[in-house]
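Long-time lurker. I teach an intro course on protein structure, and each term I like to show students one example going from raw sequence to a predicted 3D structure in token notation. This year I'd like something fresh instead of my usual example. Would anyone be willing to generate the tokens for the chain below so I can use it in lecture? Attribution to the forum is fine with me.
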Amino acid sequence: MADLSYVLSALIAVPFLGFLAVMALGRTPRAARWIALGVSLVETALASLLLLTYFVPAVQLAFGTLLGPHVPEGPPTAGAYVPFLYVERYTWVPQLGMEYVVGVDGLSVPLLWLTPLLTTLSIVFQWDETHRSKQFFALLLFLEGSLSGVFVALDFVVFVVFWELVLIPMFFLIGIWGGPNRRYASLKFIVYTHVGAVIMFLSIFALFWNSESANAAVTGEAARTFDMTVFLHSAIRDGGFLPLVLQVPIFLAFLFAFLVKLPSVPFHTWLPDAHVEAPTAGSVLLAGVLLKMGGYGIFRINFGILPLAARDLWWVLAIFGVVSMVYAAFVCLAQTDLKRLIAYSSVGHMGFVLLGAATLTTVGVVGGIFQLFNHGLITAVLFMLAGSVKHSTGTRDIPALRGLGRAMPQFSTVLIIGFFASLGLPGLNSFWSEFMVFLGAYTAPNAGDLRRLVFIPLLSIVVTAAYYVYTMQRILFGELPPELGKPHDLPRNEGASYAVLVGLIILVGLFPIPFLQLMDGYVRTALPGLFGGG
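-- Reply from a regular --
Happy to contribute to a lecture. Here you go:
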């Protein structure tokens, strides 16, 4: 049998090799897009196989010899921190405490699978891109590889490298293929997110300089390290290797970086500008995957490494989450650009992630993690819809769009499903994550009498339904304005992307248990003792 125990490194390497292949061989638009599609399909297949090993025990048994776990000598070993199904570890620069460590668990696998899936669908959706097509499709693969690296990295140096690499392709995608204000939007995007990253660097070095005792307990060697698994093991064992007085400032610094990336009010202002100017594929990956880096960082680092501070500062997360949910919902009521409306709705939906984390209950935190995944599917559909209506009618201005229900029936059907999924209609995927977040918030033992305040974020559900229904009424009904001409319905390539995403939204909405078990497994193995109930 072929040895595929290096599957995690392959998931990083394949897109970067594809990037080089497109740049070298994509001499025509046709060649560039076919190479990019082929590479991304390979990546999707590898990630799907990895996901299936979690869902289907028989698949895990059948492919166990192929996929690992590949764990060379070194921590973690039996008896230490090992909730990761697959881990790869290699010595990099031992003098500086740097290793190449990658691994996956119930938190990272769904997001790792979402990354190549949305990249593949974005390539298909923008199949007819002709402006500098070689560079366009190559950058999509570069972004895919960088995002995959973030979700598997278990060494802080590796994590930071990929965290920063993500900025490069997105900066150029917005700056070259974006709208009229693309330069302003791309600069604002990179300044905001890079400032957050600089603050994160300070937190990482604070952990590094205080890591000797934790490393000694795990490896027997009193040396400083960037190895996340050492910190995670220490947190599971005794609540972390740092006292609360040190955990709190490090927690807040990490939280700032992740709130900017998520983003949360008031650090969100870069997002609407970036989305409005970005090409459709850029918006899909920005909202569908790149924003998830912030939520992933909170659950992996703030909760996984600094649990004492998480217990102490849950109310900070709750405030940011509730404010984001309510503020974004009301701002959406005033939007006239369909893409800007969807961008602000993303800010509100990321508020669910923060509120779920703040509950410190298993059901609430699992709901917050599930919301990351569900929002990735839904927002991909919504931003594709904004791109489709722009291609067909030449405008995204909501007051100018009327009568599309009769003129574009396929588009209208997908729009209704996407809007209903986003507002949390039962039977569609987002219902489960939003329900679990509110259930966790109401039953959270740390909330006490404040549990009654759960009706404040519930207000955002009502307002969300209002602006989505109002937008549908304005876009789909009435007579088609003459200035729109004769808009065409969805072309085949766009229809194929929608079919996959809508199918997944319905499938996950009807059968959420496999994903919930996957995420619940992460919570119970990687975050024991953090939650007070649920």
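Some talking points for your students: Residues 426 and 509 are 8 Å apart (CA to CA). Residues 313-534 form one domain.
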